[in-house]
Design goal:
It is built from seven helices and eight strands; from the N terminus they run ααββαααβββββαβα. The protein has helices at 14-19, 36-45, 73-79, 90-99, 101-108, 193-200, 214-222; strands spanning 48-51, 57-65, 115-119, 142-144, 155-160, 166-174, 186-187, 206-210.
Length: 224
């Protein structure tokens, strides 16, 4: 993250960052990657693993953003008539961008939000990414929520519809720029391509029930 950018400060758009010389030759790079589509979705996820040429793995986590609003590129692909609604998954978008890198990069500019990373050290390979509570996430037990409505660390019973449905107890351990509202959450399904493909297909309705001590719950309800 460039030192002049402060958390919460609105900065350059994704297009401006990628086409200008603002960040060039300043030694801010962590790594160079060979897949534009993977990099884009890595920014949406906020953390991940980069496979290095020497066989090693570099783990990176969220460091900050340009505080620009998130805009769905899936909706932009649909609007442009490139993909049908039922096709607009992360997997299909990645495939199209890889086949059409120049046109694809311009469509990705539709999402002005840009995320900066930091190197995550001393984290075992079998541990999940670090969430907003600075703790590793656990597959199918960690939930990303809007902290304005759901306190971090709170147990949350989720009742997800869709195929397959999901009813289980999870812990609110992370946040996200597009997760807004009392009944919005992202389920952490794990790491790797298989988990990523599954996650990109979940867009189901449902309900969240936050479990809180009685006095805390009453205090929250009195502020609504």
């Amino acid at each position: 993250m460039p030192p002049e950018l402060r958390q919460g400060q609105t900065w350059l758009t994704r297009e401006e960052i990628e086409t200008s010389s603002t960040l060039r030759e300043r030694g801010l790079e962590i790594a160079w990657v060979d897949d534009l589509a993977d990099l884009f979705f890595l920014q949406i996820q906020g953390s991940g693993r980069i496979k290095l040429d020497d066989g090693g793995v570099l783990r990176i986590g969220y460091a900050g953003s340009n505080s620009r609003p998130f805009k769905s590129v899936a909706e932009e692909f649909i609007r442009l008539g490139i993909l049908e609604k039922h096709q607009a998954s992360a997997k299909m978008i990645k495939s199209w961008v890889r086949k059409n890198p120049q046109a694809g990069s311009k469509i990705l500019w539709h999402n002005e939000s840009y995320v900066f990373f930091r190197v995550v050290e001393k984290l075992a390979s079998d541990k999940g990414p670090v969430g907003a509570m600075n703790r590793s996430l656990t597959a199918l037990r960690s939930l990303a929520v809007d902290p304005d409505y759901v306190p971090l660390g709170a147990p949350v019973w989720i009742n997800k519809k869709g195929n397959p449905p999901m009813r289980r107890l999870m812990i609110a351990q992370d946040t996200g720029s597009v997760i807004k509202g009392s009944q919005r959450a992202d389920i952490f399904l794990g790491s790797g391509d298989i988990a990523g493909d599954k996650a990109s297909q979940i867009k189901d309705g449902g309900s969240l029930f936050v479990l809180l001590p009685f006095k805390r719950a009453m205090l929250l309800s009195s502020h609504e």
